[in-house]
Every structure is written in structure tokens, then in C-alpha cells.
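Next comes this protein:
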Amino acid sequence: MTSVEVFADVWCPFTHVGLRRFVARRDELGADVRLLVRAWPLELINGKPFDPVFIAEEVDDLRAQVAPDLFSGFDPGHFPTTTLPALRLAAAANQRSPQAGEQVALDLRDRVFERGQDISADDVLDEVAAVHGLRRDDPATLDAVQRDWDDGRARGVIGSPHFFTPAGGFFCPALDVSRVEGLLRITPDRAGFEQFLDSCFGA
């Protein structure tokens, strides 16, 4: 089994699309490749948490323009106020096994974008930890977010999601995102995504 690393934050909707598209293609091919999702803590990088209204606008644009199958249960009223505890829990899962790490990374994002849950709430994180057999207070993960952030900066990560495959780095490979006269324009980056997938699955 091989791994594809990705630096990302839980509340990034573009990451949710990219991870889902990756998993769908992997399952279609039956490839033995796992995602290793590492922390790219945007609230530390930006100096503040994400604005749920702003994210709701991005979600609406993503759903309308490229991903009508996703974001079915997104609720900005339950948007997390922080993702740092969730990122630490994801780090604990990565330490458990590649399978556990991927499952928790996907579960956390599904809870935010498909189930409308606040993954900064203790009861939600306690449930995630229980479902996956993890400890939330694992001392080995206390500085995991900082370590990932430092490693990501050293490797040239420019945003969430930034993937690393044997062929090199790919920033947000599933989507072409731009602003035209102040409006967000999102289109599938089919050529870039196919190149990215080829580098993941050895096509």
C-alpha cells in the first residue's frame, strides 16, 4: 500500500471536493493507495477562524458549479469555531494506522459538509473518537498541528488542499478557482486532475 500526502484544513470546502473525488476514482480503479491527510491550520495561518457566511457562499458556488452531489447537509449555523482539536484528533488517527487516518479525515469533513455538525464541539469530537477507537487527550499529538504546519511550509505548501505524489506537488488539482469581477468562478480542472490521478495510481 502506498500513500498520497495532502496538507489541508477540515473546514476547507475545496478539500472536501478533492478528497471525495480522489476516493471515488481510487475505488473505481481498486487501487491500494491511501490518503495521508496532514494539518494545514488556516486559522493560525490567517490569524483568525473562517467566517461561516463566507464559507456558505463558497459552498453554494461549489454546489451550483461543480459538485451538485456534495454539501447536502451543510449548515453555517453549526460551522466550527476552530478546527485545531479536530486536527489533533486526525493526527492521533494517522499515528494509529493509514486506514484510521484516512477514515477520520473523511469522517470529520462529512460531519461538517454533509451532516451539518460542529466538529469544534466536545460532544461531536468525543463521538468521532469513540467511533474510531481514539483518545482525544493523546499527549503525542499535542504539537502535531505545529509539526505539520512547519513541515508543510518547508515543503512549499501554498494552501488547502496541497497534495504530494511521487510526481511532485499539486495544489487543489480537482478545481480551477478564480474570481471574475468579484464573483467566484469554479470549474473542474479535468486535465490537471487527470495528471494528478495518473501520478497517484500509476496510469
Notes: The chain has one domain: 2-201. The CA atoms of residues 70 and 183 lie 21 Å apart. The mean pLDDT is 90. Residues 2-201 form a domain with the Glutaredoxin fold (CATH 3.40.30.10).
